[in-house]
């Protein structure tokens, strides 16, 4: 009987794992809550493939241990593959898949909700309510329909974000280094980032974290933006020079900042710091600001997305073990 073994299965993933298992009664599915390490690799012995998801590196030792346990077909439940030692994976003949698209709506919706909350000054109002201060002023909102929303990157997520913002009645403009023909026909694109900075009241980043995009939001780009701009980064921390954003918040140039991602997030996000010394002063300051909305990389974290991550990873792994073409193979020759 074909066997698939899954690592690091969280409680919120279990119902979707059971759902997949019930739909594939001829496959033996087993799992552990533990991460894949050189020590836990042996748990996969006897399996034909593994399903994984972790921020911990897939080191040469881990991959070797998995190969020693007889498994070289590995399906990620997430997108990112930078923590895999590709040279070793290639040497050992690994076949790998990922899930590049699981729910663009999850991330786009989060960006839209947070943008609207910033514009209505909801965090300030919530703080007043908690103190039983029920006065209106000076916590006045800005309507989304009055904003020009500038979207940088019109891929899977950017496009959904554009639709949601239009649903609110905003004027949407966009910039992408590769123009989408449909969007171009509809006249969304401006010619340059500078044009977008000049016109937009709300700016949302939906581009990948490639070297060319690191710190694309910096002192220089912020100086080109309108006063009272709202900036949204639910994409990747390194896209933003956070010190420049802090300067913009301090000077009053930036009306509000939405961040679901942060350059120093690894090892800090998705941990409970209650009662412990918080490890990042800058992040603590951002969390405390009334016009900054911080979430710990949870834009993707919805039932819809988690279901897709689990089921697509298992579908991919089954394709690999059956010698079929998986939906989303990962090329091991990464440049
Ligand atoms: N917060 C979360 O939970 C979460 C979850 C998934 C993805 N993301 C992030 O969201 C971002 C967008 O993901 P996606 O699936 O929409 O990607 P995508 O590949 O579908 O789209 C990215 C778009 O950005 C464009 N682009 C690249 N560099 C650019 C630049 N300098 N200027 C303008 N456009 C540029 C590309 O041409 C492409 O159209 C990525 O950074 C991804 O890592 C975040």
Automatic annotation (TrEMBL):
<dbReference type="InterPro" id="IPR006139">
    <property type="entry name" value="D-isomer_2_OHA_DH_cat_dom"/>
</dbReference>
<dbReference type="Pfam" id="PF00389">
    <property type="entry name" value="2-Hacid_dh"/>
</dbReference>
<dbReference type="InterPro" id="IPR029752">
    <property type="entry name" value="D-isomer_DH_CS1"/>
</dbReference>
<protein>
    <submittedName>
        <fullName>D-lactate dehydrogenase</fullName>
    </submittedName>
</protein>
<dbReference type="Pfam" id="PF02826">
    <property type="entry name" value="2-Hacid_dh_C"/>
</dbReference>
<keyword id="KW-0560">Oxidoreductase</keyword>
<feature type="domain" description="D-isomer specific 2-hydroxyacid dehydrogenase NAD-binding">
    <location>
        <begin position="118"/>
        <end position="299"/>
    </location>
</feature>
<dbReference type="InterPro" id="IPR006140">
    <property type="entry name" value="D-isomer_DH_NAD-bd"/>
</dbReference>
<dbReference type="InterPro" id="IPR036291">
    <property type="entry name" value="NAD(P)-bd_dom_sf"/>
</dbReference>
<dbReference type="InterPro" id="IPR029753">
    <property type="entry name" value="D-isomer_DH_CS"/>
</dbReference>
<feature type="domain" description="D-isomer specific 2-hydroxyacid dehydrogenase catalytic">
    <location>
        <begin position="8"/>
        <end position="331"/>
    </location>
</feature>
<comment type="similarity">
    <text>Belongs to the D-isomer specific 2-hydroxyacid dehydrogenase family.</text>
</comment>
<keyword id="KW-0520">NAD</keyword>
<dbReference type="GO" id="GO:0008720">
    <property type="term" value="F:D-lactate dehydrogenase (NAD+) activity"/>
</dbReference>
<dbReference type="InterPro" id="IPR058205">
    <property type="entry name" value="D-LDH-like"/>
</dbReference>
<dbReference type="GO" id="GO:0051287">
    <property type="term" value="F:NAD binding"/>
</dbReference>
